[in-house]
Write a structure and sequence with these properties.
Largest sheet: 10 strands, antiparallel
Subcellular location: Periplasm
Protein name: Lipopolysaccharide export system protein LptA
Number of strands: 10
Strand content: over 45%
Structural class: mainly beta
Helix content: under 10%
Keywords: Periplasm, Signal, Transport
Shape: globular
Number of helices: 1
Subunit structure: Component of the lipopolysaccharide transport and assembly complex.
Order of helices and strands: HEEEEEEEEEE
Radius of gyration: 17 Å
CATH class: Mainly Beta
Number of domains: 1
CATH architecture: Sandwich
Family: Belongs to the LptA family.
């Protein structure tokens, strides 16, 4: 897997900060809204601070949603600090902070880290927002600095394993009501 060169990283950061990932932080631990979880089964290990939910897991805080086949929550003395979700695919949805629409992201694995203030989408990652699309094998989004880095996967013969973006022209929306 080749690392991205600096000019490609700057381009990605500029494009995505301008529109594609125009979201607030993922789950907001300072929010007054609770994080709710529903699933087919749950296992809580209070001593280790780990809760494992399996089977059609739905996690929500306000309008931010995460759905997956399996979700693991990690707590420390400071509270919830990590969420790991997996599915075929797992899905993360959040309204954008300005304007209308929402960020809709899918990947086989989605990880949110409060400590790093980072969302990571791994394996077949696709992020869509207002007609813009971003694909890669691994996409990291720093929710505080609003910086995106992405990596393509290895060429397995099924595809080129590269990062791909579709960017809509300004003023052009896929929403037919505008």
């Amino acid at each position: 897997m080749k690392p991205l060169n600096n000019s490609v990283r700057r381009l990605l950061a500029t494009v995505l900060a301008a529109g594609l990932m125009n979201s607030a932080t993922a789950f907001d631990l300072d929010s007054d809204q609770p994080i709710t979880v529903s699933a087919d089964s749950a296992r809580l290990d209070d001593g280790k601070g780990i809760a494992i939910y399996t089977g059609a897991v739905e996690l929500a805080q306000g309008k931010t949603r995460l759905s997956a086949e399996r979700v693991v929550l990690y707590r420390s003395a400071d509270g919830l600090n990590r969420i790991e979700a997996s599915g075929s695919p797992a899905r993360y949805q959040q309204p954008v902070t300005s304007g209308e629409g929402e960020t809709d992201a899918k990947a086989k694995n989605i990880t949110w880290s409060a400590t790093d203030k980072q969302l990571t989408f791994e394996r077949e990652a696709v992020i869509e927002q207002n007609g813009n699309v971003f694909r890669g094998d691994i996409i990291h989004y720093d929710t505080e600095q609003r910086v995106v880095t992405a990596e393509g996967g290895e060429d397995t013969g099924a595809g080129p394993g590269r990062v791909e973006m579709v960017i809509q022209p300004r003023g052009n929306s896929t929403d037919s009501t505008q």
